[in-house]
Amino acid sequence: MRRYETIYIIRPTANEDDINAIIDRTNGVIEKFGGSIIQLDRWGIKKLAYLIKKESQGYYVFTEYAGMPEAVNELERLFRIDEKTLKYMTIKTQEVYTPGPLNKTAVQNQDSEEDIAKNANEETEQA
Fold it and tell me: With a threshold of 0.90, does the pTM exceed it?
């Protein structure tokens, strides 16, 4: 599995039901291909830097997920077909992603930060 981030912009004229349907369909495609949603943020309506399909605003949705490349291909195919999606972008953030509570490197980094803090406290007490 790989880790991805996808940001997509939905037309501001879409009602809440349409937005929820697009988000549910996106999450469904990811899960259908064996992936999992890590984070989903609804950024809301924001002003666009330039007109996209004659729209000056768009509803932004950010999704971070783990999945297979086939899921990304299917997502982007659906985004191209859907008239309510103005623009989308997917980037791969991690080549190999293993789901778990904490990665080993994250635990090691946390331990080293605690050691640094402890050493700093000891030096302060000695002074």
Answer: no
Tokens at 33, concatenated = 């291909």
Please give the pLDDT value at position 5: 96
Residue 114 lies in a domain: no
Q: How far apart are CA 31 and CA 38, in angstroms?
A: 11
**8 Å CB contact between 83 and 14:** no
In this structure, is residue 117 part of a structural domain?
no
Task: Say how many C-beta atoms besides its own lie within 10 A of residue 62's C-beta.
Answer: 13
Q: According to DSSP H, which parts of 14-103 are helical?
A: 16-32, 69-81
Q: Which residues of the chain have pLDDT under 70?
A: 100-127
List the domain range (segments joined by +) for residue 58.
2-98
**Confidence (pLDDT) at 97:** 79
Strand order in the sheet with 85-94: 36-52, 55-67, 2-10, 85-94
CATH of residue 22: 3.30.70.60
